[in-house]
Design goal:
Layout (H helix, E strand, L loop, with lengths): L26 H5 L1 H10 L1 E4 L10 E5 L2 E5 L7 H19 L1
Antiparallel strand pairs: 1-2, 2-3
Helix pairs in contact: 2-3
Amino acid sequence: MPNKRTTNKSTTRKSIPSKPTPLAKSDLERAFPAIADWVNERGWVEIGFQDDFSGAFVRALDAGGMVWEGKFSYPSLDAALRDLENGIKNWVKENG
């Protein structure tokens, strides 16, 4: 005899909000708001040594290419992210 499966269909539906609920900001987004805005709205960042095209450890890019490059090396990752944060802030201030 075949095994019959019973299904319970719930008639209760969850309401769907009309607007998405904003997500809480992470510690990283609070510490580096310009980087967070950049990667969420404008472009992307690269961290680490990549190739011979750029000697910078941190970079900010958009669809048009490189918009900011940091230094070759930093004493810490935190120092590199602070420099990237300031570089993006200055670029946005100058270029809109």
